[in-house]
Every structure is written in C-alpha cells, then in structure tokens.
Design brief:
Blueprint lengths: L3 H11 L7 H8 L23 E5 L25 H13 L4 E5 L9 H10 L3 E6 L6 H10 L3 E5 L5 H8 L4 H15 L3 E7 L7 H11 L4 E5 L13 H18 L6 E4 L4 H8 L17 E4 L4 E3 L9 E2 L5 H7 L1 H8 L4 H5 L10 H7 L12 H6 L7
Parallel strand pairs: 1-2, 1-8, 2-3, 3-4, 4-5, 5-6, 6-7
Antiparallel strand pairs: 8-9, 9-10
Helix pairs in contact: 1-8, 4-5, 9-10
The structure holds iron/sulfur cluster (SF4) (2 copies).
Length: 389
C-alpha cells in the first residue's frame, strides 16, 4: 500500500459524483449547510425516542491492543452473554424504545454469532451500527453485514501516519487493514464514518483527519475525547489542558462551517455551547452534549448496564432484570434524569444543551456525578479562573 499521505490524495481522486455510492451522494451535492446532509445513523439527541442509542460491548475479545482501551480488551471475559441472552437483551432494548443499537467491543466482529444478532436486532426494528477497528472488514464481511441489516460502520482511525496509528493500535498492519475496511464499505455501499480518539499526540492532526474523512466518503467524523482520569486530582492543575481542550473544540466547530459532513465531538459535551457561541447550527439530533442515562447507555459483555462507558456506577444486570425494566426503574438513571447539577453546571445558562460530562464530574468530586464538570472553560470563566471570557 502507498504512503498514507499519498493514499489520502489518491482516495480523493477516486471519489467522483459518478462512483460515490448513492447514500453518500447528498454529501457531495449539498450546499455546505450542516442540516441538509445525509444523517448518520449514529446521531442522537435528547427528547426524541427515535434517536435513543444503546451501545452493547459485545465481547472483550479483540485482535488489537489499543493503548486507550477502556475495556482493557484482549481475551474474552468468562461469562460473556450467550447468543440467547443477547437475543433477550435485544428484545429488552426494543421494548424500551431504543432505535439505534451500537455493536461494539472489544472487537464486535470477533463474536462468531455477530451476523445472527445483527439480523435479529434489525428484525426487531432496531438500526444496528458498529464501532469497529475496521481491520476485519473484508469485502465479504461488509457484504454480509449489510445483508444482515447493519446500517453503518464506525471505523477507528487515530492518525494519518501509518506508524503512529499502528503503534497506538498495537498492530503492525492495523492502518492498512483499516483503510481497506473503509474502501470495502464504500465499494459495496455500506455507509461508514470515522471515529478518532483525540489525544495529545494526535491533536494537531484532527483537522487533517476530518478532511481525509470527507475525501474517503465517510458520512461523518466522530471525535472521542478521553476522560482525563489519573491526570491530577484538581482542575487548577490542568487549567492549561482545559484551555487547549476549549481551543480544539473551537477549531473543530469552525471547521464544521466549511465541510459537508457532520463532525461530532463525543464525550466533550461543551461542544454544544461552543457551537452556539460561534454561531454554528447543529443538527437537532446533536441537541445535547452528555446523553448518559437520558437517551444513551451501555451494556457490558457480561450484561451490566451503565450510563456510559466511562461511568463505573451500575444500573443493574440484564441477567437479573430485563433491560427495559432497568432502563425505566434504575435509581441511577432517575438521578441523572433530574439534571439537578451542582457548582458551575447548576448555574450555567448552557446546562440544557450541554449538561457537562457526568463521568468527569464524578471523578473530580469523589464520585458525586451530579456535581459540576470542572473540565470546562466556561465554568472556570464563571468562577473567574480562566483567561478568556
Ligand atoms: S458522562 Fe461523559 S463520558 Fe459519559 S456520555 Fe456523558 S460526556 Fe460522555
Ligand atoms: S458549566 Fe457545565 S453545563 Fe455549562 S458549559 Fe460548562 S460543562 Fe456545560
């Protein structure tokens, strides 16, 4: 395979209005307004059951060893949900009113029953989508996924530099295989989007990765912000990081004005405030920053339901109670749904569209996840602790 930098230019040349699959066509003919584009099936927003999302971490097995993996994936955990338990989970998810089901992992494509479960979710009216490292996405697998009812693939790409990506992902051929996975999806008309984990070392590449996504025919670029656990207990010590985080959100939202596909910062709820400050109109499905426990939750490989992958609080296990009952009755979700926040978030004019990261709030406040999200430039400004107003 060619050098990645050349590859991106080459890929761009290959995408013309003639060979872009229909599903992407609108991305190339639109006027540049965010709201006119083909919608990514991953998009979510509070207040509409249509966009409720559940992410099932299907397995702990993975063929890579990514450094940031919150699952610490590798070997499969004992007692992962069986096929029949997974079908019961899907039944509960459908009963609870969810519409979008993310199959993630570990690496979801390593589950032998994955196609059967995707087909089952689809038969229950759910839109199955994937979070995958893309390395197992052969053309044949892409075709089978599409036939089973998968509606989109979220494929992880953390750098346009092959070596950097490979080192981070812990696989010598990861980059080439991931790019091939995207090309396979494009070839057979299975929509895909790029998922990039934002870290110090790739921060300067984010805008290039977004451009690359446009050229490759991705329908969106999702940026995943790591929750800064373990980086110092008090926010004052990381004030510079807060500022650089804010600057990156501003750069990304300014970029949104220029490109024809949605950019979605994930687990960076302040992006909704930044968009408003910059006059960027977001799709109504991005109407709220943090969705944990409101229109989103995750289910672990062994059936534990949590508000999100970064929150350790548990709402219940589907082996003990059906998923829909946990979703309706859990005290943890009830507390999140009060939206009664402490500190800056409680006083903030943007709390309705942002909500702060509840995982970070818990981290910085001894587990009190309803406290303020201290990783916010606006919150610091309200307290007179940041430079920029
Ligand atoms: S609590 Fe934080 S990490 Fe979890 S969904 Fe909300 S923004 Fe994302
Ligand atoms: S203070 Fe809280 S609600 Fe307001 S923008 Fe910051 S994180 Fe969001």
């Amino acid at each position: 395979m060619e050098d990645p930098k050349e590859l991106s230019a080459d890929a761009a040349d290959k995408i013309t209005s003639k060979n872009v699959p229909d599903v992407f066509a609108s991305l190339y003919t639109g006027s540049g307004s965010f709201e006119k584009h083909e919608k990514s099936p991953f998009q979510a927003g509070e207040g509409s059951g249509e966009y409720m999302i559940v992410s099932w971490l299907t397995t702990n097995r993975c063929n890579l060893k990514c450094r940031h993996c919150y699952q610490n994936a590798g070997e499969s955990k004992e007692q992962e949900l069986t096929t029949s338990e997974a079908r019961e989970l899907i039944d509960g998810i459908a009963r609870a009113g969810f519409k979008i089901m993310i199959f993630s992992g570990g690496e979801a494509l390593m589950r032998p029953d994955i196609l059967e479960l995707v087909a089952y979710a689809s038969s229950k009216g759910l839109r199955p989508v994937f979070g995958t490292n893309g390395t197992l996405l052969t053309e044949d697998m892409a075709v089978q996924l599409k036939k089973s009812g998968a509606t989109a693939m979220g494929i992880s790409l953390d750098s346009l530099d092959r070596e950097k990506h490979n080192v981070f992902r812990g696989g010598e051929e990861a980059f080439d295989r991931t790019i091939r996975g995207m090309e396979n999806c494009r070839r057979i008309g299975l929509p895909f989007q790029i998922h990039t984990t934002v870290m110090d070392w790739n921060r300067d590449e984010i805008i290039d990765i977004i451009d690359f996504g446009v050229k490759m025919g991705a329908m969106a670029v999702y940026l995943f912000f790591l929750i800064p656990v373990g980086r110092g207990r008090f926010i004052e010590e990381s004030a510079l990081e807060v500022e650089s985080y804010e600057n990156l959100l501003r750069a990304v939202m300014n970029k949104q004005k220029e490109i024809p596909i949605p950019i979605k910062p994930t687990c960076a709820p302040q992006f909704t405030r930044v968009a408003k400050e910059l006059g960027v109109t977001l799709d109504r499905r991005f109407s709220r920053g943090c969705l944990a426990g409101l229109t989103y939750c995750v289910v672990s490989p062994v059936g534990m339901v949590r508000p999100c992958a970064y929150m350790t609080e548990e709402a219940g296990n589907i082996r003990e109670k059906p998923f829909d009952q946990i979703w309706r009755e859990s005290e943890l979700f009830a507390r999140l749904r009060t939206k009664e926040y402490g500190g800056s978030c409680g006083k903030c004019a943007y709390q309705g569209i942002c909500g702060g990261c509840r995982a970070r709030a818990g981290y910085y406040h001894d587990g009190n996840f309803m406290e303020e999200d201290s990783y916010c430039a606006h919150g610091l400004r309200m307290k007179g602790e940041a430079k920029h107003a």
